[in-house]
Design goal:
single chain, 562 residues, Rossmann fold, 6-stranded mixed sheet, 23 helices, globular
Length: 562
């Protein structure tokens, strides 16, 4: 095929597990041309990531069986090599230099014991015979291209010193520094706020136009797909169900599943409206009355309904030290913030990466100490009864893989929580409770005995959510808890949280960079910038009538389907 970089033909992949054969991909075929961006969309477990990993032979060889098909790569558009038959040496020459990949979870992709600059220069030196000085200069230039602040200082920082968005930008710089012919992006903007997301999308588009490289862009965000893709591949249960141009997929979808994905986006629905899932739409089991079923979002502003009071808190971290290790200056992550959280409300906190929203959430939960100010929970004596406070105040972290022990079965991970707090009387009852929780978050009871690596990113996040819900807490901090989920699973989780919130009257502090989700899901919104609150109001007020220019810019940067 003229100008073709990659041709995947009739590819089928199975995984051999101790529970039998799992069909991951079934007879998929598509191509990527030079100067083309192809988006692959679908729910968690649809086969998107398996497809991308197979291109670079990154699937575990011990359990992966290629049943049929070819993965043909061509540098010149004429001569092709079948990646499935390449030797390890040939694959090493392709990885990073000719085909590069940006992974979904930067927090687990970067080595914590090496500086960010060291890791990027290592990638450059592996594929280019140049000096370390030139490699360092090149790495710093790429840090600037991906909009990392103080690129020279960032070169010497370790991953734990960066925000989630900054870590992802380091990963993007690492992937692009060797100017690959084909770039595979596996959910590269999932964890980024909308303004950083927009700059990264523009960066990828500009680099693609400058170099003529091909791009495979895997995402569940249909707004992102609309903005960046030339061609769209829709996957469902390991198969490709529809392929078409951007315009065809979004304005003339043919397959029922594609129509369902487009119909269940939160941005299309008002606060309180029950979100339809892909299953609802495909099976045609939801009526207008069911879609308009109202969740309990109301709350009364009086003293009896106060759950938490945050009074002028400041949280700061060391910024620079002298040769003796004494701190010379500090960075204020949270700067004199005050807020009140009311019973049975969902309070959203939004802002760019590094604005302090995650630090604020963790500080409220007593996971990070304050330097100034105080945090009060009228119903709990935090100092005297920490165990009861921990039971009633839970957090759902942003990165599910880092939150789960890779050596422990996911059922036992949730069971441990029930054991520690002596929930229910017998082990049998607790195991049954775990299985019920797994089913509530859209998994299966027989998933109890599987390990974290056997699940997709979205499925792992649902496991973490099940663990947080196990104790029926009164207060939950959701730190980007639906950011990594595809739109249908996102709808399921938001519906689940609404259902549980209505039943048990708990309160949610919802931290997110996705303003469309926050607008749908939250009663009130707090906007943070540089550690401070710059705007606060009801969801409708902040979203439709923003007063602060920073809030206006955040809303303007939200991807739209055109």
């Amino acid at each position: 095929m003229l100008n073709s970089l990659l041709n995947i033909q009739n590819l089928s992949i199975n995984f051999a597990t101790d529970r039998g054969i799992i069909k991951a991909l079934s007879d998929i075929s598509f191509s990527v041309n030079k100067n083309e961006i192809v988006a692959i969309v679908g729910e968690s477990g649809s086969g998107k990531s398996v497809t991308s990993l197979s291109i670079l032979q990154l699937l575990p060889s011990s359990v992966t069986k290629y049943e049929s098909g070819e993965i043909l790569f061509s540098e010149d558009g004429i001569n092709e090599i079948n990646i499935l038959t390449c030797s390890n040496q040939q694959i090493q020459q392709i990885r990073g230099k000719k085909i590069a990949m940006i992974f979904q979870e930067p927090m687990t992709s970067l080595n914590p014991v090496f500086t960010c600059g060291n890791q990027v220069t290592e990638s450059i030196l592996q594929h280019h015979s140049i000096s370390k000085e030139i490699a360092k200069k090149t790495a710093i230039e790429w840090f600037k291209k991906v909009d990392l602040p103080d690129a020279e200082k960032m070169f010497d920082k370790y991953p734990h010193e960066l925000s989630g968005g900054q870590k992802q930008r380091v990963m993007i710089a690492m992937a692009m520094c060797c100017k690959p012919q084909l770039l595979i992006c596996d959910e590269p903007t999932t964890a980024l706020d909308v303004t950083v997301q927009k700059s990264i999308l523009n960066l990828i588009k500009n680099l693609q136009q400058e170099t003529g490289m091909g791009v495979i862009f895997i995402t569940h965000d249909l707004g992102v797909v609309s903005e960046i893709a030339h061609k769209v591949v829709v996957m469902y249960k390991g198969r490709i169900v529809e392929t078409g141009t951007n315009k065809q997929i979004f304005h003339q979808p043919k397959h029922t599943y594609t129509k369902a994905l487009l119909a269940c986006r939160p941005a299309q629905y008002d606060k309180g409206t029950r979100l339809p899932t892909v299953h609802d739409i495909i099976k045609n089991i939801s009526s207008e009355d069911e879609k308009k079923q109202q969740s309990s979002f109301s709350y009364k502003k009086n003293e009896k309904d106060i759950v938490a009071i945050v009074d002028q808190i400041t949280v700061q971290f060391p910024k620079s030290k002298n040769i003796l290790g004494k701190t010379l200056s500090y960075n204020k992550a949270v700067d004199h913030v005050s807020l009140t959280v009311y019973r049975n409300e969902t309070l959203g906190i939004v802002g760019e990466s590094g604005c302090g929203k995650t630090t604020l959430g963790r500080t409220i939960l007593q996971l990070i100490p304050t330097n100034e100010g105080r945090i009060l929970f009228p119903e709990f004596d935090i100092k005297k009864d920490k165990k009861n406070f921990r039971k009633n105040a839970q957090i759902i972290f942003q990165d599910p893989y880092s939150s789960l022990n890779p050596k422990i079965k996911i059922g036992d991970t949730i069971l441990e929580v029930l054991n520690v707090h002596h929930i229910l009387h017998s082990k049998t009852e607790r195991i049954q409770k775990v299985k019920e929780l797994l089913e509530k978050v859209g998994l299966e009871a027989n998933h109890y005995h599987r390990y974290p690596h056997e699940f997709s990113g979205g499925q792992r996040q649902r496991i973490v959510i099940a663990r947080a819900l196990a104790l029926s807490p009164a207060f939950i901090v959701c730190d980007e808890s639906v950011a990594a989920l595809d739109v249908s699973v996102q709808a399921q989780v938001l519906n689940l949280l609404n259902d549980l919130k209505e039943e048990f009257n708990f309160t949610i502090l919802f931290i997110s960079h996705d303003l469309s989700v926050v607008k749908y899901f939250c009663d009130r919104i707090i906007v943070m910038q540089n550690g401070k609150i710059v705007e606060e109001g009801t969801a409708d007020e902040v979203y439709h009538h923003p007063q602060n220019s920073y809030t206006q810019n955040l809303i303007a940067a939200i991807p739209q389907i055109k």
